[in-house]
Amino acid sequence: MPSSDTHNAVGFTDLIRGVVKMAPHAPNMIKHAPGLIHRPPEAKRTIGSIFQKHAASHPDRPFIRFDGRSITYGEVNRRVNRYAATLADNGVGRGDVVAILSKNNPTDLMVMLATVKLGAVAGMLNYNQRGKVMAHSVSLLDAKVLVHDPDCAEAFDSIPADVLPPQVFDFAGFDSAAQGRTESDPAVTATLPASTKAFYIFTSGTTGMPKASVMSHNRWLANLSGIGGLAVRLKHSDTMYVPLPLYHNNALSVSLGSVLASGACIAIGRSFSASKFWDDVILNRATAFCYIGELCRYLLAQEEKPTDRRHAVKVIIGNGMRPEIWDEFAERFGIERIVEFYGASELNLAFVNAFSVKRTAGFCPLPYKIVEYDDHGEPRRDEKGRLTEVGKGGTGLLIAEISERVPLDGYTDADATEKKVIRDAFTDGDAYFNSGDLVRDQGFAHIAFVDRLGDTFRWKGENVATTEVESALDSFDGIAQSVVYGVEIDKADGRAGMGAVKLRDGVDLDPKKLSEHLYDHLPAYAVPLFVRVVDDFEQTSTFKNRKVELRDEGYAKTGDDAVYVLAGRDKGYVDFYADYPDDVANAKAPKG
């Protein structure tokens, strides 16, 4: 965890400096300010209507850039409308779901836009999922149509036939079906209220299988106004480079919202490559990009080269920038503004660094509290059953007030949503959403992100549910029981997965077979980097107390227990070696 002195307090002079930096952008900011304060759910304003308004106003302006080639707003809108007509002819209407399984490319984005123009919901599947996890996600969507990218063949082929929607298209088939369809804007788009659901974004939540969090158009508009309009502040001549998966809200809501706030261009990166990153940024003529903290650390780990400063990027937007690399990153790559933000797919508010303060997750004008918590990451109640706020500058659990002004979209599963709601927190009848995150109060409504609590940890920009990993470990023949937790690695972002396992009597662990089993059952980012073989666990009902001790012991205080580390998909697990944590921090392990 970063030391406390890297989380600076925010003072009045910081805000004044921020206001001075905002001054050149004042006209646009004034235009977007009302959208942060008041977004009527009944207003006829949605992603589709905003996009097609740009297409009508400036059809020849570039909207999507991919591999250096541009497609204009007008061209994209015509293709999107053909896609929308195709979906409509296959029974898709308001409230229906279209499942999209795709790697980053323009078709992915255009199928999403076609879906939301119809008032339907784009179910953005995570192409890293396989087998049982993927089947669960597809079943949860209950989609009428699935459109899939041929580059996702492995993920698509793992979906059982009995959970597939009635209509399934690959990209070529969908393009073929769209030929000759109308290129006019769907009439329904202008009638849709902002309260309409736009996306289902998959998140691990805190327990069990992935959950589909709901993103309404109205909540997406908060990203457009609050993050895009007031904080990122792109001009229409700017290009935002997006190397993160389009199934992430960081790309689909924050980045796309920033682009459509000004009618700018979105440059879609196929995938993140530290060695080729700046080359792709330059090829796509980007002036901004989105990040997660790990991406920035990998870029700093590269050898210095001329392209470090040969690009035109001046502003970046993302989350997880480690405080200790903030200044180094900005200086080496010539970044003028780092717009760090804090949010989550299911959370009903976000913080954003609108005032350009260093080493902060930003500012939020909406009601929240930072409260004391127990060893299990749950809010601590006093003798009267109420929660206690931490003092000024303190660290605690972030909870967000739920109200008519700030509603909660939650998950598709009402029971799963209710489990994250804290009721009667400070007064009878109040309600707060439990973020599950530990943050530090920096003053003036600013926070610094500190850690992830509870039964979820964050790794590779993804939330990993410990129960999902435990289920995969427990289904391996030689393992009788497992406990999974996240451990810190110096100079690495988030927490790496570690599993403590108890073997069945008379069984020796086969590390290679175990890794093959886990890669078959889990997304690559969820496969634990460390496996510790223990003799037994304390016999409690949930193992939570033991989990805290195991997490504190990490991989360095394991006594005589055998510890294996993940070398990669080919080599599997190997015996722990002293340089392994450094190899992970420097992106040398695991491989594949």
Give the helix/strand layout:
Blueprint: H1 12-22, H2 26-37, H3 47-57, E1 62-66, E2 69-72, H4 73-89, E3 97-101, H5 106-117, E4 121-124, H6 131-141, E5 145-148, H7 153-157, E6 167-170, H8 171-178, E7 197-203, E8 211-216, H9 217-232, E9 239-242, H10 249-260, E10 265-268, H11 277-283, E11 288-292, H12 293-301, E12 315-319, H13 326-333, E13 337-342, E14 351-352, E15 362-363, E16 368-371, E17 395-401, H14 414-419, E18 421-423, E19 431-443, E20 446-452, E21 456-459, E22 462-465, H15 466-474, E23 479-487, E24 496-503, H16 511-521, E25 530-533, H17 544-553, E26 563-568, E27 572-575, H18 580-585
Parallel strand pairs: 1-10, 3-4, 3-5, 4-7, 5-6, 9-10, 9-11, 11-12, 12-13, 24-25
Antiparallel strand pairs: 1-2, 7-8, 13-14, 15-20, 16-17, 17-19, 18-19, 19-20, 21-22, 23-24, 25-26, 26-27
